[in-house]
Amino acid sequence: MTTVESSATTGTRRGPLTALLGGSRSRRIVWLLIGVFVLISAVRVISGEQELTSSQTFSAALLLAVPIALAALGGLFSERAGVVNIGLEGMMILGTWGAGWAGYQWGWGGAVLGGVAFGLAGGLLHAIATVTFGVDHVVSGVAINILAAGIVRFLSELFFIDNPAGGGAAQSPRLSSRPPEFSLPVLSSGPDLLGKIEAQHWFLISDLAGLLRGLTSGVGVLTVVAVLMIPGAYLLLWRTAFGLRLRSCGENPAAADSLGVPVYRMKYVAVLISGALAGLGGVFLVFVANIYREGQTGGRGFIGLAALIFGNWRPGGLAAGAGLFGYADGLQLRSRTAVVALLLLVAVLLAALAVHQGMKRRFLQAAIAAVFGAGALVGFIVIDELPPGIVFFTPHLTTLLVLSLASQRLRPPKADGLVYRRGEN
Amino acid sequence: MSVVRRIGLALLAPALAITVALVISAIVIALIGENPLDAFRVMTDLGDTPAQQVQSIVVILNRFVPLFLAGLAVSVAFRMGLFNIGVEGQYRLATILAAAVGAAVVLPGPLHLLLIVVVAVAVGALWAGIVGVLKVTRGVSEVISSIMLNFVALGLASYLLTGPLRGSEEGASVVTTTPIAESGWFPDLNGLLTGLGLAEPRSDLYGFLVVALIVGVLVAVLIKRTRFGFDLRATGMSPSAATASGVDARSMVVKTMLLSGAIAGLVGLPDLLGDTHQFGTEFTAGLGFLGIAVSLLGRNSPLGIAFAALLFAFLDRAALPLQFADIPSSVVTIIQGTIVLAVVIANEIARRLALRSAERAGASAATPPPLSGAGGDTPPDDGPGGGDQDRTGQPGQPQGAQA
Description:
Shape of chain B: globular
Distance between the termini of chain A: 40 Å
Number of helices of chain B: 16
Helix content of chain A: over 70%
CATH topology of chain B: ABC transporter involved in vitamin B12 uptake, BtuC
Structural class of chain A: mainly alpha
Strand order of the largest sheet of chain A: 1-2
Oligomer: heterodimer
Strand content of chain A: under 5%
């Protein structure tokens, strides 16, 4: 966290930390990630919780991060074009149902198409309401979330009850085929070198092996495609004329309009892409369980939105956010005791923050950070295992903590959330 | 613009929306091979005998009370351009803690009730206060933080219920807290019904109805007739103008969230004090999200919210008869969702019509149009979000998020 804080101030002056880590922003971020990884590794050694960096945890984290990243990517397209999309959750819900319905009939390929089509329909609804009718974006999004929950229940009652293939009012029949997977030869399958290194539990080296093995063994082909979409979105939005036009609608639609950019059409396209991506996120959730279940999204559309804000409306940032939430989610699913070890991590980070704030003579903030840090440390020492109700909200609490610690210097698209009417602005 | 015309415009939007929602629902029902007219008849049929009809009305009113309170809680924040999506978590956490405190003590009647209500209000306000404090100190969007706190509150409630506050036997199918002693039960209003010469219903009419109506009047007075209410509406319409006229926007955010959360704390109490007397896994869920819909439908005015809550309660009651008639009861949810979406669209159209006629009137009087739109000039009661043009989706505008 300290590096985040210091990077925020470098606009005017360079702190000692910045000088130490080197000038450019991307290099500082790389250093930050390495630092956090070393810290997690140290926490693993101290607490003895091997699950913290096991390849299974990272594998689960990747699996859970992808839907969040796709939802966030959907939010990126929409908000870069100036349309706030709280309806991501609803579009994701529609996507899960579409995937379940198409998947049990036509396999995984059908599931992808079905989920994307249903998400697209949700996006179309949002676009009609916000762009054509100029309804407040948040209001329309909330209405879509309510509507989506009702629609999927209704459709399930219609199609899945008394279905010979199985299913019921709250779930679909099983998917008829699974998407293809692969493992890297030699390293993660066959001789499985990484697995052997991981089993040694060496400081840092085994953790790195766990990370690499988690990311390379039993990875779905579609997961790779989804991960590649993130740099793809960057190239599309920041390196093409289409992307420039789309972003101009989110920054200054009136100016864009005066230069001949079809603002309404661009917004429509952006919100439709947004819905399709959120729907695809839902498809991945269905692939994890191999079945559609009601409530499967569990607020991941909202977490995707949080990842987008955390990532400062940039593809790289949202990927980091999604990775973080995916990791917290994967860890809480793998082991309830390992979550306790996270408290030690929180304690260390807060202690660092307290020292940092103290050096800047902000004693109130330093004291608050120190008190919470001490609380986390006590929690780590006292608690053995968290009850299920508490572990369940680890990712959500992590989201909130990270947002409140690091959401200071964010720059949303300038016209984000504003209703644009041609000729009125 | 004449008064008749203005009222006509105000009623146009809801009427249009409900018509559109009914047409869409009819199409949906027809698509699944049922007769829409049959379905609507089932939904509006309150019963054959007077006793059944009174019972149906009591069920509707009992559902109305929490929906009205939830709508009020959301609308107070809405008026300031704040989106309190966290009502769901606020009322669940408030209800379980109030139930636990209420079960732990035995006091003389009114005191016992008062204690339970105070605990619920305090918990709701504190939980919502976190959202306000995070927004003004750390610039975290209230939309995101209230959603995340929903999950935390639901997790906490489930932990408390299965852990320290568990009152039911191990292995019971429904986990509940210890029941509240009878001194903490809210008196019902059945006497009122029989006094009016109506049949005695099977279930009790919640006495909390009176509390809810009083809260509704209080909120109306607070928003319309007090300095605080003026500041609140002014901040909602234009944060910069309000700040310039001396309103402390930061403390207004926290105060509004506290108020919204305090009302949200009451949402679970009608069911708790009037019916179940304990919090359990089967306790009414989803009221917070319905509250958002009710608030949008009622255009953030207490009277409008009352009508909206009544409509939703009426639709909710229809779910069971629909099931008996072999029509999927989720039709009700679809109608509700469609009404909300149709209402926000219809409101926008009505606003545009009003704007145009005002402009025409202004032009004919050879004065400049009164509203020259940056899109942010929504009249207070018009836009579903109150001053929603302030980018509610984004965190911490005043605190230099643009830096």
